[in-house]
Amino acid sequence: MKLNRRKLLSLIGVSPAVLAGTPAFADDKKKKAAAPAVITQPKLEAINPKGMPPSVALVPMAPRLDSLDGKTIFLVSDGFAGADRFLAQIALWFQKNMPSVKTVYRLKAGSYFDDDPKLMAEMKASGNAMIMAYGH
Amino acid sequence: MQVEKMGLPTAPLVTIAFVGLARSNAASRGMPHERICFLPHPMTNKSDEEMYKVLEGNDPVSNKPLMPEIIAALTVPLTAEEKKTGSISPDVGPATFSGTQDELQRLYCDNNLTDFMPIILPTEEKVEAMLKGTSHKPDEVIGKLSAAQGAQPSWTFTVRHVAINAVMAGASPEHLPVILAISSTGQPSLFSSTSSFTRMVMLNGPISDQIKMNYGIGAMGPFAEPNAVIGRAWTILSKNLGGCGVPGLSYLGTLGSNFNYNNLCIAETENRLPDGWKPFHVQKGFKADDSVVSIFSGWSLNNIAWFSALKYNDVIKNWLTHFFSFGTGAATVMLDPTIAREAKDMGYNSKEELCDYWSKNTKTPAWLYWDTHRGELKQAQDGVEPYASYLKMGDADIPFQRFYRRGRPGAPPPPDAAANPKSSIELIVLGGETNTYFAGGDFSYVTSASVDKWR
Prior knowledge:
heterodimer; A: alpha/beta; 3-stranded parallel beta sheet; 5 helices; 18% strand; elongated; B: alpha/beta; 3 domains; 4-stranded mixed beta sheet; 18 helices; flat
């Protein structure tokens, strides 16, 4: 069966009109040939789209310890994979290299974003410092 | 940081992939000099021996020996900067920018204020026109937006801020109430997670026809202006009104998602729902003549037709059993109306009945079950039933129904979960009925908001 071009384009879902160009496009080409080479754009004033980030209250850090000798360090995992195993290796390192340091492993309750008041209270009562591993 | 506030020195350990995030997070919470120690990335796949070797090596950022650095973080006296109090107001730049059309397009693009496609420049005139799309005052505070609530700063924004971003996305005033409703949920389209979350927004109620949303042929494609610009506006406003989408700081998705350009902005094909099937917003407690946006969160979608004698209730049941992605416990299924009618003819008188059938009858591939139920594996090895019997089944699908809401692993289950388990499958009907396709993926329902409130 012989197909003409128009029929073929219709069968593949393309209107033959799209390949013919439009009068407006043709006119535009003519205009371009005659137009001056430099087009100056007017200046505009556009609005900054940013919202309002919160102001930040600076928090002083906690005083540091004189040394870790005889101190209790909490090793806290945020629950992401791998943090627990890595903290176990830190505990092992202290055992081998600084045996006077006591380490206590804890998994923080809740998600990465959540506070764990129970753990905070425990650390305040019996800890001297914290090493926290964030996983990944 | 809470621990530092409590008076205990800390040494946070973070892998090198998150240097920017860790430092910006510390700064945005008021402790810009927090003594963060860095590790190689990734750590999760290392053996115990390899992890110990990391401790004997250097911090890859400071290049100093790691363990002495951790000890120093806890013991070296504070500097004056580290003791500082007061407050800092983040600078978001001037109120307006001046330049030619081309210069401003470049400026907005270079400053991460867009989705990197050309925008409509938000001039005062265009923003004023946009604000005519709502009865609300321009300075009304809508709420807060954050790349991750609790972990990233929460920005505040007003009706006018949303209107500015709506102009940029190419929206019209008639679209503004929908965009305001989306923003009122406080849900960003760009979530900070490494997992490259995708969000989806669906319209229900009279608004869909009023603004001419496409829910027919190509309902999920680029075939209508409101679907395109409303979805786009969500991403642009998430960047500008929530500080989202800054790679390495507030966006960590390792692969990213192309869906984020438009956030799968769809409308349910309510006029082709089978008799008795409720539109999605009515399922969620709204009235049929309410106009509502609903937000979903997930990662991926499959697009499937199955031409055999097997009926679609079971085709989809089998797909749900074997569908595997990062989200393993929730799904959203989008049915072309032809499949919805087939289901109705089979006797499913509501979406809920069909979702219930799927939740009750889907199973879990053996590898997936054991990989996500380590505790049960131990019990199975100790002979505890039913896990011991599951283990004897080898590679066969385990009769564990994973599409029920059971709460987060480790968290207590919802009070009535055991007595009245709720399907975690959502069902949407949309499409143009040109074939019996369905789309399904790991999206879960997040929330809905009234559009009418923002008219």
